[in-house]
């Protein structure tokens, strides 16, 4: 019976802390920066879409 109680408490602690964070996007914003390109860069359309998606995400979460 004691092992069931310990398991239940451990599971609850895991569930309560699994998605814990200090705020909206703080971990992402600590490492992410906008991606800048120069006129000399040659991007394919899929790469340009990925860069745009990244920069829009950064602007929405980190500003």
User: What is the number of helical segments per DSSP (H or I, 4+ residues)?
Assistant: 3
How far apart, in Å, are the first and last alpha carbons?
A: 51 Å
Strand coverage percent: under 5%
Largest sheet: none
Overall mean pLDDT stands at 80
Number of strands: 0
Instruction: Identify the overall geometry.
Output: elongated
Q: Helical residue percent?
A: 55-70%
Poorly predicted runs are: none
**Roughly how many Å is the radius of gyration?**
21 Å
The secondary-structure element order is HHH
Structure class: mainly alpha
Describe the secondary structure blueprint for this structure.
Blueprint: H1 2-17, H2 26-31, H3 45-62
What does this protein structure show overall?
The N and C termini lie far apart (51 Å). 63% of the residues lie in helices and 0% in strands. The chain has a domain at 24-63. With 63 residues, it is an all-alpha fold.
List keywords for this structure.
mainly alpha; 63 residues; 3 helices; elongated; single chain
Provide a concise account of the structure shown.
This protein has three helices and no strands. With 63 residues, the protein is mainly alpha-helical. The mean pLDDT is 80.
């Amino acid at each position: 019976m004691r092992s069931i109680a310990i398991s239940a408490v451990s599971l609850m602690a895991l569930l309560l802390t699994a998605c814990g964070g200090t705020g909206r996007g703080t971990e992402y914003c600590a490492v992410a920066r906008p991606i800048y390109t120069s006129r000399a860069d040659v991007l394919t359309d899929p790469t340009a879409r990925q860069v745009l998606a990244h920069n829009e995400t950064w602007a929405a979460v980190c500003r």
